[in-house]
Amino acid sequence: MVSKDQYLWFKFKFDFDPEDFDDGEMCALELECAFYEKDMRSDPKFQNLESISDLSRTLVQTRKSEFFPMLYGLICLVLTIPVSTATTERAFSAMNIIKNKLRSKMGDDFLDDCMVLNVEKEYADSISNDEVIEEFETSSTRKVRFS
Predict the structure, then answer these.
(1) Residues 37-78 pLDDT 10s
(2) CA–CA separation, 9 vs 30, rounded Å?
(3) How is 35-63 classified by DSSP, letter by letter?
(4) Dihedral of the alpha carbons of 20, 25, 27, 28, in degrees to the nearest 10
């Protein structure tokens, strides 16, 4: 019988990317989940964990991550989802700010350049306008001097 926790792991994994596991690996994961559940309930180090990151840390400290590699991999995957989602959301938010109704016909190259400047705001702010003008002047010969 598959427990509720095991079912949630399976559901998460299949919703995330069903091609990661073949039938043999699914069978191995199911067995690993059963052993994991039995082992964790009897180990006092795993009784008062408050978060999934505590679980991951304790698995590594007790070296049980080596005994449950598939489950540990799923836990690591769950821990990275908020980071990867937040980065993507920030990029799309920046793109919506940059490419608005007034600039809807912006070319891809110009949009890319604006996106880099927006995402790397701290670095872009550290460069003065004078440095940009100097670089532009020295990059090729100009008919007009800017400074």
Answers:
(1) 888 888 888 888 888 888 888 889 999 888 888 888 888 877
(2) 10
(3) HHHHHHHH-GGGTT--SHHHHHHHHHHTT
(4) -130
Question: Token match 């532009």: residue?
Answer: 136
State the pTM of this model: 0.47
DSSP character string of the chain: ---HHHHHHHHHHHHH-GGG--HHHHHHHHHHHHHHHHHHHH-GGGTT--SHHHHHHHHHHTTTTTTSHHHHHHHHHHHHHHHHHHHHHHHHHHHHHHS-GGGTT--HHHHHHHHHHHHTHHHHHTS-HHHHHHHHHHHS--SS---
Q: Are 46 and 18 in contact (CB under 8 A)?
A: no
Residue listed under structure tokens 């191995």: 28
Long-range contact list for 44-52, CB < 8 A, 24+ apart?
Answer: 52/78, 52/79
